[in-house]
Amino acid sequence: MFWCAGSNNVWSSDGHDKLKAFGIAIYGFIDAWSRKVLRLDAGPSNNDPRCIAYHYLQTALKLGGIPQQTCTAHGSETGIMGVYQMAFLLLYGSGDTREQSRHAHIFKTSPKNQKIESLWSLVRKRRGL
Description:
The chain is α/β, with parallel strands linked by helices.
């Protein structure tokens, strides 16, 4: 479990693989505080770091900014996104940007990335996926 200060403080993201057998991989972002779904993308891959970074950048563009922190499962697909998050906070953050960038992206095991995992659980229960 983790604490967040408010809306857009932490974005939690993860992939959903239940439809991969049909060629559909889903990747989503939610606001950890409000649990509002910020973005869901369906495509051929949710494991390609370039795709995940692209989804992150599109989410930031759509919302007009970035969170103080991103939270993902520890996988190779989120590396570029984590680097972007740290770089943006170093370039545009306020206050102690070195300290902010150190905590800009956190990795949790998939079950502990509870905010986004609760969305996948809801999808499974309501849609049988």
